[in-house]
Amino acid sequence: MSSVVNAEPYRIKMVEPLHMTTRAEREEAIRAAGHNTFLLKSKDCYIDLLTDSGTSAMSDAQWSAMMLGDEAYAGARSFDNLWNAVEEFYGFPYTCPTHQGRGAEHLISQILITPGQHVPGNMYFTTTRAHQELAGATFHDVIIDEAHDPSAIHPFKGNVDLDKLRALIDEVGADQIAYINVAVTVNMAGGQPVSMANIRAVREICDEHGIIMWSDATRLAENAYFIQQREEGYADTPCAQIAKEMLSHFDGLTMSGKKDCLVNIGGFLAMRDEDILIKARELVVLYEGMPTYGGLAGRDLEAMAVGLREALDDDYLAHRIGQVRYLGERLIEAGIPVVQPIGGHAVFLDARAFLPHVPQDELPAQSLAAEIYVESGVRAMERGIVSAGRTKTGEHNHPKLELVRLTIPRRVYTNAHMDVVADAVIAVWQRRASIRGLRFVYESPTLRFFTSRFEPLPVSPLPVHEGTQEEHALAH
Ligand SMILES: *Cc1c(COP(=O)(O)O)cnc(C)c1O
Question: Which among 52, 125, 188, 304 is the best mutation to test ligand 1's pocket, defined by most ligand atoms within 8 Å of the CB?
Fold first, then answer.
Protein backbone atom coordinates (compact mmCIF):
# COMPACT_ATOMS: atom_id res chain seq x y z
CA MET A 1 0.00 0.00 0.00
CA SER A 2 1.21 3.50 -0.84
CA SER A 3 2.57 5.52 2.06
CA VAL A 4 1.34 8.81 0.54
CA VAL A 5 -2.29 7.78 0.84
CA ASN A 6 -3.79 10.79 -0.86
CA ALA A 7 -1.72 10.85 -4.05
CA GLU A 8 -3.39 9.25 -7.04
CA PRO A 9 -2.22 5.71 -7.90
CA TYR A 10 -2.60 6.56 -11.61
CA ARG A 11 -1.60 9.31 -14.00
CA ILE A 12 -3.87 11.26 -16.32
CA LYS A 13 -3.58 10.73 -20.06
CA MET A 14 -6.76 12.36 -21.30
CA VAL A 15 -8.40 15.52 -20.03
CA GLU A 16 -11.88 16.99 -20.29
CA PRO A 17 -11.98 20.80 -20.02
CA LEU A 18 -14.48 22.22 -17.53
CA HIS A 19 -16.68 25.25 -18.01
CA MET A 20 -16.47 27.99 -15.40
CA THR A 21 -19.62 30.00 -14.68
CA THR A 22 -20.44 33.26 -12.94
CA ARG A 23 -22.73 33.49 -9.95
CA ALA A 24 -25.35 35.27 -12.08
CA GLU A 25 -25.28 32.41 -14.61
CA ARG A 26 -25.69 29.87 -11.83
CA GLU A 27 -28.60 31.74 -10.29
CA GLU A 28 -30.33 31.65 -13.66
CA ALA A 29 -29.43 27.98 -14.18
CA ILE A 30 -30.86 26.83 -10.84
CA ARG A 31 -34.07 28.79 -11.48
CA ALA A 32 -34.41 27.18 -14.91
CA ALA A 33 -33.83 23.78 -13.26
CA GLY A 34 -36.67 24.31 -10.78
CA HIS A 35 -34.15 24.23 -7.90
CA ASN A 36 -33.57 20.55 -8.61
CA THR A 37 -29.90 19.77 -9.20
CA PHE A 38 -30.95 16.73 -11.26
CA LEU A 39 -32.35 19.15 -13.84
CA LEU A 40 -29.18 21.23 -14.24
CA LYS A 41 -27.17 20.86 -17.42
CA SER A 42 -23.78 19.23 -17.07
CA LYS A 43 -22.08 22.13 -18.86
CA ASP A 44 -23.23 24.45 -16.07
CA CYS A 45 -21.61 22.31 -13.34
CA TYR A 46 -17.96 22.98 -12.58
CA ILE A 47 -17.50 20.04 -10.22
CA ASP A 48 -20.22 17.45 -10.61
CA LEU A 49 -20.82 15.53 -7.38
CA LEU A 50 -24.40 14.57 -8.22
CA THR A 51 -23.55 10.90 -8.21
CA ASP A 52 -20.80 8.33 -8.42
CA SER A 53 -23.05 6.33 -10.74
CA GLY A 54 -21.67 5.87 -14.25
CA THR A 55 -19.37 8.84 -13.76
CA SER A 56 -16.10 6.95 -13.26
CA ALA A 57 -13.06 7.48 -15.46
CA MET A 58 -12.25 4.24 -17.23
CA SER A 59 -8.68 2.96 -17.44
CA ASP A 60 -6.57 2.44 -20.54
CA ALA A 61 -7.14 -1.30 -20.04
CA GLN A 62 -10.91 -0.81 -20.08
CA TRP A 63 -10.84 1.36 -23.20
CA SER A 64 -8.65 -1.23 -24.91
CA ALA A 65 -11.03 -4.01 -23.92
CA MET A 66 -13.90 -2.05 -25.46
CA MET A 67 -12.22 -2.33 -28.85
CA LEU A 68 -12.45 -6.10 -28.48
CA GLY A 69 -16.21 -6.01 -27.91
CA ASP A 70 -17.96 -8.87 -29.70
CA GLU A 71 -21.18 -7.34 -31.02
CA ALA A 72 -22.80 -10.61 -32.09
CA TYR A 73 -26.51 -10.62 -31.22
CA ALA A 74 -26.19 -13.95 -29.43
CA GLY A 75 -23.40 -15.96 -27.86
CA ALA A 76 -20.88 -13.13 -27.87
CA ARG A 77 -17.37 -13.77 -26.54
CA SER A 78 -17.75 -10.58 -24.46
CA PHE A 79 -20.53 -12.26 -22.49
CA ASP A 80 -18.21 -15.16 -21.66
CA ASN A 81 -15.58 -12.70 -20.48
CA LEU A 82 -18.03 -11.07 -18.06
CA TRP A 83 -19.38 -14.43 -16.91
CA ASN A 84 -15.83 -15.66 -16.19
CA ALA A 85 -14.86 -12.47 -14.35
CA VAL A 86 -17.95 -12.66 -12.12
CA GLU A 87 -17.20 -16.30 -11.35
CA GLU A 88 -13.53 -15.64 -10.64
CA PHE A 89 -13.90 -12.48 -8.53
CA TYR A 90 -17.39 -12.77 -7.02
CA GLY A 91 -17.70 -16.55 -6.93
CA PHE A 92 -21.11 -16.89 -8.61
CA PRO A 93 -21.49 -19.52 -11.33
CA TYR A 94 -24.36 -17.78 -13.18
CA THR A 95 -24.62 -14.22 -14.49
CA CYS A 96 -27.38 -12.42 -16.34
CA PRO A 97 -26.40 -8.95 -17.63
CA THR A 98 -28.86 -6.04 -17.49
CA HIS A 99 -28.72 -2.47 -18.73
CA GLN A 100 -27.94 -1.23 -15.20
CA GLY A 101 -28.58 -2.10 -11.56
CA ARG A 102 -32.31 -1.42 -11.54
CA GLY A 103 -32.73 -3.81 -14.47
CA ALA A 104 -31.36 -6.55 -12.22
CA GLU A 105 -33.52 -5.33 -9.31
CA HIS A 106 -36.57 -5.55 -11.53
CA LEU A 107 -35.80 -9.14 -12.53
CA ILE A 108 -35.04 -10.45 -9.04
CA SER A 109 -38.08 -8.71 -7.52
CA GLN A 110 -40.35 -10.28 -10.14
CA ILE A 111 -38.76 -13.70 -9.68
CA LEU A 112 -38.66 -13.95 -5.89
CA ILE A 113 -41.66 -11.92 -4.70
CA THR A 114 -45.21 -13.20 -4.47
CA PRO A 115 -47.58 -10.25 -3.98
CA GLY A 116 -48.29 -9.70 -0.28
CA GLN A 117 -44.85 -10.88 0.84
CA HIS A 118 -42.22 -8.92 2.76
CA VAL A 119 -38.62 -7.92 1.99
CA PRO A 120 -36.36 -6.78 4.82
CA GLY A 121 -33.30 -4.72 3.98
CA ASN A 122 -30.60 -2.64 5.68
CA MET A 123 -32.26 0.70 4.86
CA TYR A 124 -34.16 1.33 1.68
CA PHE A 125 -32.70 2.37 -1.64
CA THR A 126 -34.90 4.30 -4.07
CA THR A 127 -34.93 2.00 -7.11
CA THR A 128 -34.58 -1.17 -5.03
CA ARG A 129 -37.65 -0.49 -2.92
CA ALA A 130 -39.61 0.77 -5.92
CA HIS A 131 -39.12 -2.56 -7.71
CA GLN A 132 -39.92 -4.56 -4.58
CA GLU A 133 -43.17 -2.61 -4.16
CA LEU A 134 -43.98 -2.90 -7.86
CA ALA A 135 -43.76 -6.69 -7.44
CA GLY A 136 -46.23 -6.49 -4.53
CA ALA A 137 -43.92 -6.67 -1.52
CA THR A 138 -43.71 -4.53 1.60
CA PHE A 139 -40.24 -3.29 2.45
CA HIS A 140 -39.01 -3.39 6.08
CA ASP A 141 -35.98 -1.49 7.28
CA VAL A 142 -33.89 -3.72 9.56
CA ILE A 143 -30.71 -1.64 9.76
CA ILE A 144 -29.22 -0.88 13.19
CA ASP A 145 -30.56 2.27 14.88
CA GLU A 146 -27.18 4.02 14.71
CA ALA A 147 -27.57 4.25 10.92
CA HIS A 148 -30.41 6.72 11.36
CA ASP A 149 -28.33 9.02 13.58
CA PRO A 150 -25.90 11.14 11.54
CA SER A 151 -23.53 11.65 14.46
CA ALA A 152 -23.51 8.14 15.93
CA ILE A 153 -20.05 6.66 15.50
CA HIS A 154 -20.05 2.97 14.59
CA PRO A 155 -17.45 1.20 12.44
CA PHE A 156 -20.13 -0.80 10.61
CA LYS A 157 -23.11 1.48 10.56
CA GLY A 158 -24.66 -0.49 7.69
CA ASN A 159 -25.12 -3.65 9.77
CA VAL A 160 -28.40 -5.50 9.88
CA ASP A 161 -30.04 -5.36 13.32
CA LEU A 162 -30.43 -9.07 14.02
CA ASP A 163 -33.17 -8.50 16.59
CA LYS A 164 -35.23 -6.46 14.14
CA LEU A 165 -34.80 -9.19 11.55
CA ARG A 166 -35.85 -11.92 14.01
CA ALA A 167 -38.82 -9.84 15.16
CA LEU A 168 -40.00 -9.45 11.56
CA ILE A 169 -39.66 -13.20 10.95
CA ASP A 170 -41.73 -13.85 14.09
CA GLU A 171 -44.32 -11.30 13.06
CA VAL A 172 -44.95 -12.27 9.42
CA GLY A 173 -43.54 -15.81 9.28
CA ALA A 174 -40.44 -16.92 7.39
CA ASP A 175 -42.50 -18.21 4.45
CA GLN A 176 -43.85 -14.69 3.90
CA ILE A 177 -40.36 -13.25 3.53
CA ALA A 178 -39.47 -13.30 -0.15
CA TYR A 179 -35.78 -12.72 0.60
CA ILE A 180 -33.58 -10.40 2.61
CA ASN A 181 -31.65 -7.79 0.66
CA VAL A 182 -28.36 -6.73 2.25
CA ALA A 183 -26.68 -3.70 0.70
CA VAL A 184 -22.88 -3.42 0.90
CA THR A 185 -22.20 -0.55 1.49
CA VAL A 186 -25.44 1.24 2.46
CA ASN A 187 -25.85 4.21 0.14
CA MET A 188 -28.72 5.95 1.94
CA ALA A 189 -27.02 5.64 5.34
CA GLY A 190 -23.98 7.51 4.01
CA GLY A 191 -21.99 4.78 2.28
CA GLN A 192 -21.67 2.86 5.54
CA PRO A 193 -20.25 -0.67 5.52
CA VAL A 194 -21.49 -4.01 6.82
CA SER A 195 -19.08 -6.23 8.78
CA MET A 196 -18.17 -9.76 7.83
CA ALA A 197 -19.40 -10.90 11.25
CA ASN A 198 -22.80 -9.35 10.55
CA ILE A 199 -23.01 -10.97 7.12
CA ARG A 200 -22.24 -14.32 8.73
CA ALA A 201 -24.84 -13.80 11.44
CA VAL A 202 -27.54 -12.88 8.91
CA ARG A 203 -26.62 -16.00 6.95
CA GLU A 204 -27.15 -18.12 10.05
CA ILE A 205 -30.61 -16.66 10.62
CA CYS A 206 -31.47 -17.19 6.95
CA ASP A 207 -30.29 -20.81 7.10
CA GLU A 208 -32.30 -21.42 10.24
CA HIS A 209 -35.48 -20.20 8.54
CA GLY A 210 -34.84 -21.14 4.92
CA ILE A 211 -34.75 -17.50 3.76
CA ILE A 212 -32.95 -16.44 0.59
CA MET A 213 -30.14 -13.95 1.19
CA TRP A 214 -29.51 -11.52 -1.63
CA SER A 215 -27.03 -8.68 -1.85
CA ASP A 216 -27.24 -5.26 -3.37
CA ALA A 217 -23.52 -5.49 -4.11
CA THR A 218 -23.28 -2.11 -5.85
CA ARG A 219 -20.35 -0.94 -3.68
CA LEU A 220 -18.95 -4.25 -2.50
CA ALA A 221 -15.32 -3.28 -3.18
CA GLU A 222 -15.63 -0.23 -0.94
CA ASN A 223 -17.26 -2.40 1.73
CA ALA A 224 -14.37 -4.87 1.49
CA TYR A 225 -11.90 -2.03 2.08
CA PHE A 226 -13.69 -1.00 5.29
CA ILE A 227 -13.57 -4.59 6.53
CA GLN A 228 -9.84 -4.66 5.82
CA GLN A 229 -9.32 -1.42 7.74
CA ARG A 230 -11.73 -1.95 10.62
CA GLU A 231 -12.54 -5.59 11.29
CA GLU A 232 -10.26 -7.76 13.35
CA GLY A 233 -8.42 -10.42 11.41
CA TYR A 234 -8.57 -8.78 7.96
CA ALA A 235 -5.76 -6.19 8.09
CA ASP A 236 -3.46 -8.30 5.93
CA THR A 237 -6.10 -9.76 3.62
CA PRO A 238 -6.33 -8.28 0.09
CA CYS A 239 -9.67 -6.59 -0.61
CA ALA A 240 -10.30 -8.94 -3.54
CA GLN A 241 -10.18 -11.89 -1.16
CA ILE A 242 -12.39 -10.13 1.41
CA ALA A 243 -14.98 -9.36 -1.28
CA LYS A 244 -15.10 -12.98 -2.35
CA GLU A 245 -15.52 -14.12 1.24
CA MET A 246 -18.36 -11.60 1.77
CA LEU A 247 -20.17 -12.81 -1.32
CA SER A 248 -19.67 -16.48 -0.43
CA HIS A 249 -22.44 -16.02 2.16
CA PHE A 250 -25.04 -14.80 -0.35
CA ASP A 251 -27.33 -16.67 -2.71
CA GLY A 252 -26.98 -13.98 -5.33
CA LEU A 253 -26.57 -10.30 -6.02
CA THR A 254 -27.78 -7.37 -8.02
CA MET A 255 -25.00 -5.18 -9.34
CA SER A 256 -24.95 -1.66 -10.63
CA GLY A 257 -21.80 -1.79 -12.72
CA LYS A 258 -21.91 1.99 -12.78
CA LYS A 259 -20.38 2.05 -9.32
CA ASP A 260 -17.90 -0.66 -8.32
CA CYS A 261 -17.36 -2.03 -11.82
CA LEU A 262 -15.99 1.38 -12.93
CA VAL A 263 -18.11 1.64 -16.08
CA ASN A 264 -20.44 4.28 -17.46
CA ILE A 265 -23.31 1.86 -18.04
CA GLY A 266 -24.09 -1.74 -17.13
CA GLY A 267 -25.27 -4.10 -14.44
CA PHE A 268 -26.05 -7.72 -13.80
CA LEU A 269 -27.72 -10.32 -11.68
CA ALA A 270 -25.52 -13.18 -10.42
CA MET A 271 -26.60 -16.27 -8.51
CA ARG A 272 -25.93 -19.87 -7.51
CA ASP A 273 -29.39 -21.33 -8.21
CA GLU A 274 -29.91 -22.45 -11.79
CA ASP A 275 -33.69 -22.16 -11.48
CA ILE A 276 -33.33 -18.45 -10.76
CA LEU A 277 -31.06 -18.10 -13.78
CA ILE A 278 -33.66 -19.78 -15.98
CA LYS A 279 -36.39 -17.43 -14.74
CA ALA A 280 -34.11 -14.43 -15.15
CA ARG A 281 -33.46 -15.41 -18.75
CA GLU A 282 -37.19 -15.72 -19.39
CA LEU A 283 -37.71 -12.16 -18.16
CA VAL A 284 -34.56 -10.56 -19.50
CA VAL A 285 -35.56 -11.21 -23.11
CA LEU A 286 -38.77 -9.25 -22.45
CA TYR A 287 -37.30 -6.28 -20.66
CA GLU A 288 -33.61 -5.99 -21.49
CA GLY A 289 -32.40 -8.08 -24.42
CA MET A 290 -30.94 -11.50 -25.17
CA PRO A 291 -29.55 -13.21 -22.05
CA THR A 292 -26.04 -12.82 -23.45
CA TYR A 293 -26.18 -9.03 -23.68
CA GLY A 294 -29.01 -7.84 -21.41
CA GLY A 295 -29.44 -4.42 -23.00
CA LEU A 296 -25.71 -3.73 -23.29
CA ALA A 297 -23.26 -3.62 -26.17
CA GLY A 298 -20.52 -6.25 -26.25
CA ARG A 299 -18.00 -3.51 -25.52
CA ASP A 300 -19.88 -2.57 -22.34
CA LEU A 301 -19.62 -6.16 -21.12
CA GLU A 302 -15.87 -6.10 -21.80
CA ALA A 303 -15.34 -2.84 -19.91
CA MET A 304 -17.32 -4.19 -16.94
CA ALA A 305 -15.30 -7.44 -16.87
CA VAL A 306 -12.07 -5.42 -16.61
CA GLY A 307 -13.47 -2.77 -14.25
CA LEU A 308 -14.72 -5.21 -11.66
CA ARG A 309 -11.15 -6.43 -11.03
CA GLU A 310 -9.64 -2.94 -11.06
CA ALA A 311 -12.11 -1.81 -8.38
CA LEU A 312 -10.83 -4.52 -6.03
CA ASP A 313 -7.21 -3.29 -6.16
CA ASP A 314 -5.93 -2.31 -2.69
CA ASP A 315 -4.05 0.82 -3.82
CA TYR A 316 -7.00 2.04 -5.86
CA LEU A 317 -9.35 1.57 -2.89
CA ALA A 318 -6.98 3.25 -0.40
CA HIS A 319 -6.87 6.33 -2.61
CA ARG A 320 -10.56 6.25 -3.42
CA ILE A 321 -11.76 6.07 0.17
CA GLY A 322 -8.92 8.38 1.27
CA GLN A 323 -10.12 11.09 -1.09
CA VAL A 324 -13.66 10.93 0.25
CA ARG A 325 -12.28 11.07 3.79
CA TYR A 326 -10.08 14.06 2.87
CA LEU A 327 -13.12 16.09 1.85
CA GLY A 328 -15.05 14.94 4.91
CA GLU A 329 -12.27 15.88 7.30
CA ARG A 330 -11.96 19.38 5.85
CA LEU A 331 -15.66 19.93 6.54
CA ILE A 332 -15.47 18.43 10.03
CA GLU A 333 -12.56 20.77 10.84
CA ALA A 334 -14.78 23.70 9.85
CA GLY A 335 -17.47 22.51 12.28
CA ILE A 336 -19.92 21.51 9.54
CA PRO A 337 -22.37 18.73 10.49
CA VAL A 338 -21.71 15.65 8.33
CA VAL A 339 -22.64 12.01 8.66
CA GLN A 340 -19.93 10.24 10.60
CA PRO A 341 -17.91 8.17 10.16
CA ILE A 342 -17.25 9.33 6.58
CA GLY A 343 -18.50 6.61 4.22
CA GLY A 344 -17.11 5.10 1.06
CA HIS A 345 -18.46 7.06 -1.87
CA ALA A 346 -19.68 10.39 -0.58
CA VAL A 347 -19.71 12.98 2.15
CA PHE A 348 -23.23 13.56 3.44
CA LEU A 349 -24.14 16.93 4.95
CA ASP A 350 -26.69 16.77 7.75
CA ALA A 351 -29.19 19.32 6.44
CA ARG A 352 -31.29 19.27 9.63
CA ALA A 353 -28.30 20.44 11.66
CA PHE A 354 -27.06 22.73 8.86
CA LEU A 355 -30.43 24.51 8.52
CA PRO A 356 -32.18 24.00 11.87
CA HIS A 357 -34.57 26.87 11.08
CA VAL A 358 -36.00 25.06 8.00
CA PRO A 359 -38.57 22.36 8.96
CA GLN A 360 -38.39 19.05 7.09
CA ASP A 361 -41.61 19.78 5.17
CA GLU A 362 -39.83 22.81 3.68
CA LEU A 363 -37.25 20.50 2.10
CA PRO A 364 -34.02 21.66 3.76
CA ALA A 365 -31.69 19.27 1.92
CA GLN A 366 -33.16 20.17 -1.46
CA SER A 367 -32.67 23.83 -0.64
CA LEU A 368 -29.11 23.36 0.62
CA ALA A 369 -28.09 21.48 -2.54
CA ALA A 370 -29.38 24.37 -4.64
CA GLU A 371 -27.46 26.90 -2.51
CA ILE A 372 -24.20 24.99 -2.84
CA TYR A 373 -24.63 25.02 -6.60
CA VAL A 374 -25.25 28.76 -6.72
CA GLU A 375 -22.24 29.38 -4.47
CA SER A 376 -19.71 27.47 -6.49
CA GLY A 377 -20.97 25.44 -9.44
CA VAL A 378 -20.61 22.27 -7.35
CA ARG A 379 -23.55 19.98 -8.02
CA ALA A 380 -24.73 17.84 -5.08
CA MET A 381 -27.97 15.90 -4.54
CA GLU A 382 -30.79 15.70 -2.04
CA ARG A 383 -31.21 12.55 0.04
CA GLY A 384 -34.03 13.40 2.40
CA ILE A 385 -37.77 13.92 2.34
CA VAL A 386 -37.92 14.47 -1.42
CA SER A 387 -36.05 11.23 -2.18
CA ALA A 388 -38.14 9.33 0.37
CA GLY A 389 -41.36 9.93 -1.61
CA ARG A 390 -44.86 9.29 -0.32
CA THR A 391 -46.47 6.39 1.53
CA LYS A 392 -49.08 4.17 -0.08
CA THR A 393 -51.73 6.44 1.47
CA GLY A 394 -50.20 9.58 -0.03
CA GLU A 395 -48.39 11.13 2.94
CA HIS A 396 -44.80 12.32 2.71
CA ASN A 397 -42.40 9.76 4.15
CA HIS A 398 -40.39 11.60 6.82
CA PRO A 399 -36.97 9.93 6.87
CA LYS A 400 -34.84 10.51 9.95
CA LEU A 401 -31.95 11.41 7.69
CA GLU A 402 -32.25 14.67 5.78
CA LEU A 403 -29.01 14.81 3.84
CA VAL A 404 -27.18 16.46 0.98
CA ARG A 405 -24.85 14.05 -0.76
CA LEU A 406 -21.52 15.18 -2.19
CA THR A 407 -20.72 12.10 -4.20
CA ILE A 408 -17.21 11.58 -5.49
CA PRO A 409 -16.87 10.00 -8.94
CA ARG A 410 -14.11 7.37 -9.13
CA ARG A 411 -10.73 8.44 -10.55
CA VAL A 412 -12.14 11.74 -11.90
CA TYR A 413 -11.28 14.65 -9.60
CA THR A 414 -8.11 15.61 -7.73
CA ASN A 415 -7.79 16.73 -4.15
CA ALA A 416 -7.49 20.31 -5.44
CA HIS A 417 -11.07 19.91 -6.62
CA MET A 418 -11.97 18.61 -3.16
CA ASP A 419 -10.57 21.84 -1.69
CA VAL A 420 -12.83 23.90 -3.97
CA VAL A 421 -15.80 21.86 -2.78
CA ALA A 422 -14.87 22.24 0.88
CA ASP A 423 -14.41 26.02 0.50
CA ALA A 424 -17.82 26.31 -1.20
CA VAL A 425 -19.65 24.38 1.52
CA ILE A 426 -17.88 26.44 4.19
CA ALA A 427 -19.01 29.66 2.46
CA VAL A 428 -22.63 28.45 2.45
CA TRP A 429 -22.28 27.41 6.10
CA GLN A 430 -21.24 30.95 6.98
CA ARG A 431 -24.42 32.41 5.46
CA ARG A 432 -26.74 29.55 6.47
CA ALA A 433 -29.07 31.72 8.57
CA SER A 434 -30.34 33.42 5.40
CA ILE A 435 -31.24 30.20 3.57
CA ARG A 436 -34.96 29.51 3.11
CA GLY A 437 -36.91 26.35 2.37
CA LEU A 438 -38.59 25.30 -0.89
CA ARG A 439 -41.98 24.03 -2.00
CA PHE A 440 -43.03 21.78 -4.85
CA VAL A 441 -44.35 23.38 -8.02
CA TYR A 442 -44.41 20.07 -9.90
CA GLU A 443 -44.31 16.72 -8.13
CA SER A 444 -43.54 13.64 -10.17
CA PRO A 445 -45.57 10.60 -9.00
CA THR A 446 -42.62 8.16 -9.31
CA LEU A 447 -39.09 8.54 -7.92
CA ARG A 448 -39.96 12.18 -7.53
CA PHE A 449 -36.47 13.44 -6.72
CA PHE A 450 -35.39 12.97 -10.33
CA THR A 451 -37.81 15.30 -12.07
CA SER A 452 -39.81 17.38 -9.58
CA ARG A 453 -39.55 21.18 -9.64
CA PHE A 454 -39.45 23.59 -6.71
CA GLU A 455 -39.52 27.28 -5.86
CA PRO A 456 -38.24 29.18 -2.83
CA LEU A 457 -40.83 29.80 -0.14
CA PRO A 458 -41.85 33.43 0.10
CA VAL A 459 -40.00 35.46 2.71
CA SER A 460 -42.23 35.53 5.74
CA PRO A 461 -43.06 39.02 7.02
CA LEU A 462 -40.42 39.99 9.52
CA PRO A 463 -41.35 41.08 13.01
CA VAL A 464 -41.08 44.84 13.40
CA HIS A 465 -38.21 45.62 15.75
CA GLU A 466 -34.69 47.08 15.70
CA GLY A 467 -32.46 45.43 13.16
CA THR A 468 -35.23 44.49 10.74
CA GLN A 469 -33.36 46.01 7.84
CA GLU A 470 -30.32 43.93 8.57
CA GLU A 471 -32.37 40.74 8.84
CA HIS A 472 -34.10 41.58 5.64
CA ALA A 473 -30.79 42.00 3.87
CA LEU A 474 -29.73 38.60 5.24
CA ALA A 475 -32.86 36.96 3.94
CA HIS A 476 -31.81 37.72 0.38
C1 LIG B 1 -27.24 2.99 -7.99
C2 LIG B 1 -27.80 2.01 -7.07
C3 LIG B 1 -28.75 1.08 -7.50
C4 LIG B 1 -29.38 1.09 -8.88
O5 LIG B 1 -28.44 0.96 -9.89
P6 LIG B 1 -28.59 1.72 -11.30
O7 LIG B 1 -27.40 1.22 -12.05
O8 LIG B 1 -28.56 3.18 -11.02
O9 LIG B 1 -29.86 1.30 -11.91
C10 LIG B 1 -29.17 0.14 -6.58
N11 LIG B 1 -28.73 0.14 -5.32
C12 LIG B 1 -27.84 1.04 -4.87
C13 LIG B 1 -27.39 1.00 -3.45
C14 LIG B 1 -27.36 2.01 -5.73
O15 LIG B 1 -26.50 2.92 -5.26
Answer: 125
